[in-house]
Amino acid sequence: MAESMLKNMRAVRPGGNLREDVLPPLGRPKTEIARLLGLSRQALFNILNKYHPITPAMALRLAKRGGRLKGGLTRSGPTT
Question: In the chain, what are the helix, strand and coil shares in percent, each to the nearest 5?
Fold first, then answer.
């Protein structure tokens, strides 16, 4: 059911907000953030510069990893 809801949602492009408000306080390189999100550096760049939208699936990925990004990046590998 959740997957069907995600397919019907429209993608948004708040990459600028991530670039300007969310990532700078983390003080982490974008390459490291991309790796933790399971993205290539280029894919993250495209989102941050609003070339690609943040899809509902990507929003879920960001939400799942958000606490980990803020929490000091102490563990390696994907979270469950």
Answer: 60, 0, 35
- Angle, helices 30-37 vs 41-48, to 10°: value is 100
| Domains of the chain, residue spans | 2-70
What CATH number is given for 2-70 in this structure?
Answer: 1.10.260.40
- Other Cβ atoms within 10 Å of 49 Cβ, number: 12
Q: Is 12 helix (H, G, I), strand (E, B) or coil?
A: strand
Q: What does each of the 80 residues of the chain score in pLDDT, given as a tens digit?
A: 566 666 676 655 678 888 888 888 888 899 998 998 889 999 999 999 988 888 888 888 888 887 655 543 333 334 43
- Backbone phi and psi for residue 50, each to the nearest 5 degrees, phi listed first: 60, 25
How far apart CA 72 and CA 3 sit, in angstroms, is 31
- How many whole angstroms from its chain centre is CA 7? 18
